[in-house]
Records
---
Amino acid sequence: MADTRLYFKNDYSEGAHSDILRRFSETQMEQLTGYGTDPYCESAQQKIRVACGCETAQVKFVCGGTQTNQLVIDTMLKPYEGVVGVTTAHINVHEAGAVEFTGHKVLTLPHHNGKMDAGELRALIDTFYADESHEHMVYPGMVYVSHPTELGTLYSKEELKAVSDVCREYDIPLFLDGARLGYGLMSRGTDLTLEDIAQLCDVFYIGGTKVGALCGEAIVFTKNNMPKCFVAQIKQHGALMAKGWVTGLQFDTLFTDGLYMKLGKNAIDTANMLKEGFVSKGYELYVDSPTNQQFVVVDDAQLATLSENAVFEVWEKLEDGRTVVRFVTSWATKAETVEKLISLI
Amino acid sequence: MADTRLYFKNDYSEGAHSDILRRFSETQMEQLTGYGTDPYCESAQQKIRVACGCETAQVKFVCGGTQTNQLVIDTMLKPYEGVVGVTTAHINVHEAGAVEFTGHKVLTLPHHNGKMDAGELRALIDTFYADESHEHMVYPGMVYVSHPTELGTLYSKEELKAVSDVCREYDIPLFLDGARLGYGLMSRGTDLTLEDIAQLCDVFYIGGTKVGALCGEAIVFTKNNMPKCFVAQIKQHGALMAKGWVTGLQFDTLFTDGLYMKLGKNAIDTANMLKEGFVSKGYELYVDSPTNQQFVVVDDAQLATLSENAVFEVWEKLEDGRTVVRFVTSWATKAETVEKLISLI
Amino acid sequence: MADTRLYFKNDYSEGAHSDILRRFSETQMEQLTGYGTDPYCESAQQKIRVACGCETAQVKFVCGGTQTNQLVIDTMLKPYEGVVGVTTAHINVHEAGAVEFTGHKVLTLPHHNGKMDAGELRALIDTFYADESHEHMVYPGMVYVSHPTELGTLYSKEELKAVSDVCREYDIPLFLDGARLGYGLMSRGTDLTLEDIAQLCDVFYIGGTKVGALCGEAIVFTKNNMPKCFVAQIKQHGALMAKGWVTGLQFDTLFTDGLYMKLGKNAIDTANMLKEGFVSKGYELYVDSPTNQQFVVVDDAQLATLSENAVFEVWEKLEDGRTVVRFVTSWATKAETVEKLISLI
Amino acid sequence: MADTRLYFKNDYSEGAHSDILRRFSETQMEQLTGYGTDPYCESAQQKIRVACGCETAQVKFVCGGTQTNQLVIDTMLKPYEGVVGVTTAHINVHEAGAVEFTGHKVLTLPHHNGKMDAGELRALIDTFYADESHEHMVYPGMVYVSHPTELGTLYSKEELKAVSDVCREYDIPLFLDGARLGYGLMSRGTDLTLEDIAQLCDVFYIGGTKVGALCGEAIVFTKNNMPKCFVAQIKQHGALMAKGWVTGLQFDTLFTDGLYMKLGKNAIDTANMLKEGFVSKGYELYVDSPTNQQFVVVDDAQLATLSENAVFEVWEKLEDGRTVVRFVTSWATKAETVEKLISLI
């Protein structure tokens, strides 16, 4: 018997937005050159440059998030360098060691609601260089943040600028993982724009897989700093698609008529409904997330109720016996699904 | 001005077959679990098992050919082992060193129209073990063949069995790269079936990207020999798709109602028309290819004529000054396109 | 002008014990086979087997500590596994990322005076397997402890057995880094013998570089578990010496007539003098180290006095403004040097 | 019963020259700073600079040949580059895949008596860049030659200059493996000096292990081109010795009063005696080697005679049934041993 519960498990459970599917049909029999050299990739790259307010940005498309992180980090780090991230960073916990697989250590800092503190970053770097034995240690060579973070939280412009300033001071590139970037950009009250991100970061990626695409992430190098022979390096990492336009076409669609932002907005609107609904029903928020991931602390009775009616992720057991659960909305979430859930709990 | 020449450059220039696009639309709003745990992957796996006549086959889907080769070779080899292939092997020449990137040497044998000779393989292994210093050398740990080969040629059942027998004798897995497998299986006169391949090889992949899919390759382990913790290893290689069903659904479609074979047949039919056309117009074949890649030796005048009318790949300069060119048909090639080309040259 | 201060910086500042130098002279013109196949390696291996009370132990010699850690960890882990160590572990901090260089993550636990707690280890493993997403994480595949630890502390037999028991329960090998093993074995009051270590660990190494050899570490596999084709793997890691007997001869000497233990004893005796001297002069110990590394907490005046008279390592700045410094004795430290230092401070 | 046959198997069978052993004794109780920061390393570096006629040369010491090749090649190549060597190159055949272990392909050229032809090198590079698909291939990023070669042959100054010129033209570093450099430099009739090598190569190493040291190779960067943070990278490769002065002191000795050249001369003198002896007894040379490795073609009767009286290496079986054997002299070979051998065969 099929599971009829309401589905809030993640933001990669549905297919692609209709506009994308339509364009796959429209372009089906066009004969395009391979490996990202086609006009759709070119068009998408240009639209992304405009959206970022960075006419010189270098844009490449690959297929998934872990692949992107592995590729960007490995090709931008020198061999003896590691990447600095917070303990909860996706690269540190949930990528099966893909960064270490390419030879680099993840150097960790404590997280603050999923975020990195610029002061702690500075201290880590200062401590490293002050250590007489630092030639025997892993050099901090890049900083990795995600926006939204693993906990759905967002950097303010000031916070990201502070991290960026430290990176600039030490000439270390700042990399922002934007697997869910659309949901960050459309969060109510955020003061951090795509243009800010392009300015403050040296490289970042715009997530497609979780924001309406079948697959695909757009890597944006903002400082004319794309690694040398990057196509060869993408191939070497097993990440170069023969039909490069499969990703290019999707991003061309996402960045036409503001679709990417519209999709982001839907997830935010439904997430806010969900958050308010939880609060109205007496549920306690674990963290006040402004994006599409909502974390709720539940007791056993609440957990049972929720489990009966919805599919979601169990995030963590707290020491007091309660449980943190995660509900996720997406570009595809319908308001009525949220309303129904709230009515049931 | 747009290039209006007839396009025979490769078999990954068009999009996906209509059945695939239709199913993307049909399933658009279904909520599916991630990372290949969905029903479409399961269905596709079962259909592939049936098609291979191997009910215990373990099937996984990834996104591209180089990725597949890198993943399979690295996860099946022990760290101190290399993979044996012919000099023209894709992994040896055209994958940007993706195999070496994961730490393994490609040990080479001469090619014979793109194929490996079983006797030479045996000699390589025997010579290795006979060498007193072999502990200082790279152990031959896997054999890699492609079918069709880089030159469009095919192994006969007897030839592949001979290679397989050597592998069995030395307990070395045999890996068949089937990026264009559909075109090999539907070649007229081939006596090597999918079932034979499943029986003779320890692992192989069924190419989707070049045979009607947007992207995707199906890796088939035939001897209950899928590497341990393989999902973690796929992720570690950056090759695990969140929306795993994107590839699963495509293979489910390709293996419904014999679509994969039909697509293969179209490429073979048009390739044969092309071959006969070239011969009838006095062109000399470089190799008698029974599949969708046709190699022709042309003088400068012929090259000029062809270049005016078609897009194709320049393969190699011969010492006599002539040029080898490659024309490729695909699942999407129309008979009239071939006819038009032949009429123009 | 030469630095005439008393030297307590580390335990690798002097050359080799006279017995070793003598044997280099005695054997100078012998013609020995290469790569560790000579009679001196064989003799040393046998002596080490006897000393360990493990007649089936497999013993190999390499040149240095980081090399040993990198080699053992990489060849014993499966590709998707990481090694568990405490945060202060040498492999986690002071080996320039040598473990990650070979593709593996160091999974960290808190340290307790440099030591790992068996309960915390069990919790880490349990938490890992309980996590539904553990296929997306790094598998704990080996446990690394050092004895003595980075802080000079020692495991009791009970403590090491507790760690070993967890490893056995989960079938994860336990690796003990014995760079300073001689100093641990000869510590007064330790109840952990070389035989115990051989029994409780799956692999460990006996440090030579810091205990009287010019260079060399003896890797001991105790469970008939030396990785397959290990000589090839040593070579592949750049760690196979052509003149393998250079290390073999040194260990043959160290394990003749109890030399290794005598050298260990000298460091312990002088370290105890040093510790008592510091205490008698009112210095505060940072940790009560039973081995040859002594950590003292000093204020600025004490630091100045010490710096005038001795060479030592500044370990850490405390938040209260005081400084932790490390004094190290060795096989070569003379009692009068310690006495002189104490008289001067 | 001990093997009393005359030993010509290799040049790493005896210990270290007496001067080296003496200095180990003299310096035994000196307290030296670690990791190559001591005065002996400094002195040795300066003497090597002088010997090379290159006052700005950067010199580092490591422990073995394969380690050196792996370290130099990996740290000088960009990740997507491979190293070009001849098919017989040590790195291509006898280093257990140590270069591939660090992620790089060995791109091969045919050998000519063990040597690389500059014209073929140029053609390889030209062909690479002329290939439209070269972004899908491994970039030639370094050239590796050995001097003497695996077959004991030597580059003339003109030949090495021709290779060097190609490297300069394409801005690719030239690396010379000098595991047996002393024997090349002292070969009669060679016109290639250490100064020439320093000028023509971007990096090379001076072999100690095979020329009178216990262990140790001196890496010389001649163009102010030592890789950044090289000490960290040496450590990361497991190649940094705590007692760095163990190698430094040996090279300081080898480059005092021309010892390195004297040791080289002994091997050449005895090799020439051996060569002349073989010829006088009717043996056929396989290659006219001017250095300490002599290759002789023998029939079964000759092989039996030799095997009765000497230990040597069987190099290769020829198609005509005869065998190529290798006899090696060294810094330690005595004239009377050669005379005795010749008298016996």
---
Amino acid sequence: MAHPFVVVGGDAAGLSAASKFRRETDRDVVVFERGQWVSYAHCGLPYFVEGSVDRLTDLLSLSPSDIADRGIDLRRGHEVVAVDPRSRTVTVDAADGRFEQPYSELLVATGASATTGDFDATLDGVFTIHGLDSAAALDAYLAPPDAYDPARLGDGPVDDDAVANNAALDSPDRAAIVGGGYVGVEMAEALTARGVDVHLFQRSGHVLQPFGPAVADRVEPHLAERGVTVHTDTAVDRLAGDGRVEGVVVDGDRIPVELAVLGVGVRPNTAILDDTDAARGPNGAIRTDAYGRTSLPAVYAAGDVATARHAVTGRETWIPLGLTANRAGRAVGATVAGTPTPVGDVAGTAVVKAFDMECGRVGLVDEAAATDAGFDPVSETITAGSRSGYYPGNEETTVTLVADRTTGRVLGGAIAGRDRAAIRIDTLATAIEADLTVAELTRLDLAYAPPFSPVWDPVLVAAKVVAGNL
Amino acid sequence: MAHPFVVVGGDAAGLSAASKFRRETDRDVVVFERGQWVSYAHCGLPYFVEGSVDRLTDLLSLSPSDIADRGIDLRRGHEVVAVDPRSRTVTVDAADGRFEQPYSELLVATGASATTGDFDATLDGVFTIHGLDSAAALDAYLAPPDAYDPARLGDGPVDDDAVANNAALDSPDRAAIVGGGYVGVEMAEALTARGVDVHLFQRSGHVLQPFGPAVADRVEPHLAERGVTVHTDTAVDRLAGDGRVEGVVVDGDRIPVELAVLGVGVRPNTAILDDTDAARGPNGAIRTDAYGRTSLPAVYAAGDVATARHAVTGRETWIPLGLTANRAGRAVGATVAGTPTPVGDVAGTAVVKAFDMECGRVGLVDEAAATDAGFDPVSETITAGSRSGYYPGNEETTVTLVADRTTGRVLGGAIAGRDRAAIRIDTLATAIEADLTVAELTRLDLAYAPPFSPVWDPVLVAAKVVAGNL
């Protein structure tokens, strides 16, 4: 009997692969997940903490029984600790002991984990936002001890001890968020909604660095307007406290806080391949080709653990995001089932909400990065209306557009505004993946109607300005 | 001395051409406009009637003095009645007589006019929505005689007699809108906002025919929910009334109304070329090439009077819409100034708001039209969320996607929904103009964040389904 297709990791990439595989074939697929949670929306965690999502389990896409109904053999609480590519087996630790599982093909979809840098994350009141248990614990910590509602958890395999410990602690009045990336900005909004006085610390000159300074120039005052104190060019040296966090230390000064959220980075969970000679790429992520194949025979990787090809540079890159994880997993599932399917390039498309401000970015926004990649970047930032000027609700929309002077090709862009701004990044994402030039971009027949867009959409206004400067 | 560049028509295409021309050169440009209004937003008329735009003159983009400041010689009240391509002169009628104006190059940008079919548009209470004077007159008609506020007009060259006559008439209780196209649907919303009981009559089976039946299936119940009585498959035979409209006659029955808005079509204003042998295209529009050149030497045409190349079929088409008029005018201005600039293809991108419902369409949505154009269309309609399912405000979004079975190329699409639905058509517009296949569409790295889009944007969901059926 043939060995099964073995998938390690029960979230976006892993379950997309297993589901697609089972739709295409009746061969067996086994999914090993070291934790208890599977198929959850990582990007929804800030909105649960904020309170705009009622229950933790609302973030689950598929239940274990849904997964079983798809013909997937899901084993939770099963940690793959080693891979032997020669014998094509994985070593699995489970509650009832260790065993070897042979595979025909293997998909490593172990994701990424939040890092904590040099900060003492063992203190009470210090959280990373990674996984449902961390969100549940933070939610419990935010509630006053007499007001925590366990119904918030829904009916899932939550870490009850962590929740109970955090629910028993006094709720915080002031929080430090360390790191002004997506997680930091989303958490600033979430914690403000929970009544906490938020201080956001960003080491470099601007929050949301991948979106470029023009977006940050819209977001930072908006955060301030909503009560968030934004500290840019400010490194947090360390967390202070004994048992529980009591402050952040900045330039030798201690700012008292009772909550610290660390958003200082993520790293790929590559440990199971540490004893193999699987090739690595940027950030140590597992190197994959256009079909998600690693350098090991019959071993694939997909999602936040794997590299991908960048749509603009054509180079190997590591950009862990949700859609591309799902898509790569799905493609590997199809490929292993017998229909070779490219995982697709990544363009680094990302959107983020900061209160009423919507932001998007794609491709190469940073001119230095574009130069490093061999381009001669021309970057312009414009502001244009989101609707016809006379139509109520027209909002200033900022667009940064970057193109290559030599070829005219669109390299990247970023958008910020309050009215349907973020979703407009899809126009640029599509243009970039189609290798359009700026001249071609200026000639796109885009939507125009007073309630939705001015005659010249902000993206087209930016295109005209860049085209004029090439 | 060289003769000037002569432009006929002082709206989108004409003034875009003259403005661009003057930015590129110090040669003279003369713009003849037969009326008094210039540079106004035709697409804003329903929103003025609705009352969401305060003053008629808010719809003006440029004032005559702005235009003069650009170095454009604008002559209002100057009607070009004939063109002599041999002598390169136009004949102009003005208040102080007729004269001949020589030109070096000529741009015909005379736009289009609303048609009235066989309906008696001379009755009081019968309106087309074309031009500021018609909107001003309708606005006056809607106000009770003692409540009309002339401040609504702003300070522009309005037809005062028409306004005064209409303001003096009793305001209507019930309206018939004849034709369920963009204008009909937008006016249904506008008149409802003004407290009028609206009956919308559509000869064919669905409103918004160019958007396809799936969009209409969302819009029609929504219109009904908001109090509009939608009569599909219902032809209005004639308007009844003596002096003032008193009803519409349908299947021999008379439905009493005191207002009728005709949205039964538009036609290109080609009269000034009637005595020339300028080649014509669909609907009698002036045939133009990739640079807006007509078949006559040194004569260009742009905007609603001209044909264009269709981005999907590559064939000559006539789709009068605002952005492409502006863009074609701007391109002709650059070309005449010495920088040959293509006018660009048209994809037929259109978006429309119907109360809370947002709709968009692009390319070939109708399968029969796609077959006629030589394609083998595959069309699928899906419904998917506009946001992550757990995030508040998630709205069902309907997407129709049409592709060619032979090549996989994306041919067209349509969207309807309540949450950022219309603007998503730009993804498809960009994909279509870039000749992407459905497989390529499925691999686009589009925006994902719970407040703005689910992991798989509705456009991607549709792409996956169509790709699976090719």
---
Amino acid sequence: MAQAIAGPEIERLIQLLARLPGLGPRSARRAALHLINRREQLLSPLADAMRVAAERIVVCESCGNIDTSDPCTICRDMGRDRSILVVVEGVSDLWALERAGAVRAGYHVLGGVLSPLDGVRPEHLALDGLVARAALPETRELILALNATVDGQTTAHYVTDLVAHLPVRVTKLAHGVPVGGELDYLDEGTLTAAMRQRTAV
Amino acid sequence: MAQAIAGPEIERLIQLLARLPGLGPRSARRAALHLINRREQLLSPLADAMRVAAERIVVCESCGNIDTSDPCTICRDMGRDRSILVVVEGVSDLWALERAGAVRAGYHVLGGVLSPLDGVRPEHLALDGLVARAALPETRELILALNATVDGQTTAHYVTDLVAHLPVRVTKLAHGVPVGGELDYLDEGTLTAAMRQRTAV
């Protein structure tokens, strides 16, 4: 449609923007106009930031995090507890835990979870690296910070079996009532888990 | 937050993405990861498309449309009816009318609508150019395709007064029931307008 009225360059920009999560064809057009109307403040800086990211971002060979250095900032951080490895599905989960400041430890990004339906098998995940790191003498605990979904829990079981021969403690995140959450809106599974794992006041 | 874990380059990309309409901080992080995970297919092409857009897109001196040429593709299109000028608030409205194939005519982009509350006064809009084009001998009709809001209709009245001395017909878009729309969900103003402007079957 738009290529006939605004030239192929704008149409191409819209088509690429529409492939971002959260943007559809209509919001991609709005985003393109927004960018074009803010050329110096936004369009040029964003083009440069993307170019820099495309050229400089690498995946950390050790933990699977993304950064502009390998080993990544987290793996190079000497202030972290090296005896704990937090196992996550993806980098977004790592970011979420870091934003929360939940733990100052190392991470291991699996790059997915096992999913027979989606054809994700063990060889698609960074499991060899995880077992190797779990076998290091300094590693004492693996925290499985995986989603509380069927695939996430299947993966947790699989990882637990994989490292069962190692002298490493395996833990997982607690289930319970979200902070600020109302009981009335919670599902029965969460309420039952929260009741069973109740803590002393 | 994230700058401590993923380097300033990724944090800058997220901050710039968060300034796009429709993306907030959380979806900007998702978009950044999506881009980084698709470096060759999406991140690099999008960086290039933005660079091209930043360098080559110009505003048409005649009509205010954006394009990579001036005059723009529409102003150079000899197949359009030169006697009609469609007056729109912004380029997004021009695109919407062109997608609909509603009219094959010239356009004039005002670059906004009069809005005392937002401090938008006549000198902020492309009104001089509009009057000059309306005064051209070939121009016979101005179609005011402005939003049916208070500001849009104020602007329509203002434009009508501005060209009142010229031998040009001024029209506006019809009000009525949207195609596919249900009467039950329409406001009284639209229903009244649709009734008053009813057409013969």
